[in-house]
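User:
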Amino acid sequence: MRAYERLLNYVRVYTTSDPESGTHPSAEREFDLARQLVEEMKALGMEDAHVDEHCYVYGSIPATKGCEKKPALGLIAHMDTSPAVSGADIHPEIVTYQGGDLPLKKAGSLKVKDFPFLSRYVGQQLIVTDGTTLLGADDKAGVAEIVTCLLYTSDAADD
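Assistant: Predicted structure:
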């Protein structure tokens, strides 16, 4: 599975944080994605993948042969999304950006004046929200890249 396909799956998982909870994680629903990630990591050969009581997901892979004495590398991303906009019932879309303001399917648009970097992506495919929810891609894209990199460190790369 490619990183963007993982991202499309991950953004559909409701992980909106609750700033009023006083707990860590702030919402029990955040464990839904954590457990999904642990299962994917195990399927990719990461035998020690697990989630702790605070919703941190851990796992390790052995060093590449010949690099056992090199410093370890840690990859970190977070899974929760902002409570500023709904994170439930997400409907991501892949669109080919044609330039100018980018209309969203159900509500609003991404305006070039607010997002001037859009001009770099004319003619490219973008993953966007329908405008009614928060996509959470700033968080979950990092998670998708980390899990996808496991393909290059395990026997799953041969699949």
